[in-house]
Model the fold of this input.
Amino acid sequence: MENHKIYRIPGMGADRRLYSEIQPINGYEFVDLEWRFNYNNIKTLKDYALELSKEIDTSQPFSLMGVSMGGMICSELADILNPKKVVIISSAKTNKELLPHFKRLKFLGLTRLLNQEKIRYVLANSSRFFGVMNKEQRKLFYEMAEGVDLDFIAWSIKAILNWDKRTSSPKIIHIHGTRDFVLPFASVNPSIIIEKGDHMMIWNKSKVINEKLKDIFC
Done:
């Protein structure tokens, strides 16, 4: 019998290395999905989820896991496919859980002001805003930021600002930290609360995250 696959989606601008602190789970196989698509045909997070669904083998039982924007894609996928479980970390299930500032930025037309120079500057100076990291993690953070497709970042910001999802699947298990400044705790309704967890708790709170994941899947 094949292992139950858990398809993992990283956050905006990140890759499989975001899950470097997550331990294997007995009876499960992690399958990491990368960000890639044709921008001309994909406008929304739902559009992206529809494309990504083609990479998921639904002939066997499977689950989903996503961090930050990856969790938002998981929320869309939960409506398209039939996963056994859906775990989102430091994320949002619907647009209602986005910080009100996001809506103001949309109203102010932020997306029209985006360019590669501004995006590169923000990425190069944003690690402390996301959360606590040790020296090795901060180095990895900047390695991922340096290799990111800036057109993808611009698309992602626009897609999140225009996200129109209002309801979420009851299958979603939402893990969130009380010190998340990117998606503040006060704006979300999580299933599992991580005290003093910030947006990078997938790294700096990996011990407790691993414990929670084993409770969920075992």
